[in-house]
Amino acid sequence: MTEPNDKSRRGFLGAAAVGAAGLGVAAIAPGLHLIEVSQASAPGKGASSKVRWGMLIDTTKCASDCNACVKACNSENGISEVLKDPRQGSQWIRKIDLKDAKSGIAHSLPMMCQHCEHPPCVDVCPTHASMKRADGIVLVDRHTCIGCRYCMLACPYKARSFVHMTLTEQNPEVPRGQGCVESCTFCVHRVDKGQIPACVEACANAEHNAMLFGDLNDPNSAIAQRIAEVKTTQVRADLKLNVGVRYQGI
């Protein structure tokens, strides 16, 4: 649920960012800058740069009529408003269908934040609310997000959503805020406890096993070994963002 002072806080930070445009960082008080605030409040302070969390999705195992990953994401992250009004609800993961016009071969696959090594959303954020942890997970700090939606425009994967509606039935481990932008977090609250993302778990429970999550930097991890063995694709590889989500079979 949005904290009572979230709206005024975001309005103040937005005004500060605009007023200090061109200075490189926005000063909001003597000796205090927005960049310092974002660094101090960034989650995952203990995240290690030795790890690069990633996901491999085998589209040959992803069923077009299966929505288990989407349902699990909504349930795990407290995204209940999408059920009330899909036009206004957030969407952290969505299923898309692709069909080759020449061969007629069709694929169904989940699309979410790609957790880029060089995330455009971070580059354009005026308050540094969009940030990348040392382990590669891209997040949004709702306390410093002013809802400008620059990151939504910058994301080539349409992976970010703006929270229009009042939030209810929230997961205490997944703080969200009305008037903020948000996206897939790789279920960071689970990852930090040694668990896998909810979508991956749901896919396995549905016996599709199309999603594999792990450390891309560990050559002994299942995901690193699979990527070394089979041909995988980065969506919009031409942008050279070195994404953390790879696809097999497309």
Features:
250 residues, alpha+beta, two-stranded antiparallel ribbon, 9 helices, disordered N terminus
Outline the structure in words.
The protein has a single domain, classed as Alpha-Beta Plaits. Helix content is 26%, strand content 18%. It is built from nine helices and twelve strands. It has a four-stranded mixed β-sheet. The chain has a two-stranded antiparallel ribbon with strand order 1-2. It has a two-stranded antiparallel ribbon with strand order 4-5. β6 and β7 form a beta hairpin. α3 crosses α8. The radius of gyration is 19 Å and the shape is globular. 37% of the residues are buried.
Quick take:
The protein is α+β, with helices and mostly antiparallel strands and 250 residues long.
Question: Any idea what the CATH architecture is?
Answer: 2-Layer Sandwich
Order of helices and strands: HEEHEHHEEHEEHEEHHEHEE
Strand content: 15-25%
**Could you give the distance between the termini?**
39 Å
Biggest sheet: strand arrangement: 10-3-12-11
- CATH topology, what is it called? Alpha-Beta Plaits
Helix amount: 25-40%
Mean pLDDT: 84
Tertiary shape: globular
Total DSSP E strands: 12
CATH class: Alpha Beta
Instruction: Please summarize the sheet with the most strands.
Output: 4 strands, mixed
Structurally, how many domains make up the residues? Answer: 1
Spans of at least 5 consecutive residues with low confidence? 1-5, 12-45
Helix- and strand-based class? alpha+beta
Output the number of helix runs. Answer: 9
Question: How large is the radius of gyration?
Answer: 19 Å
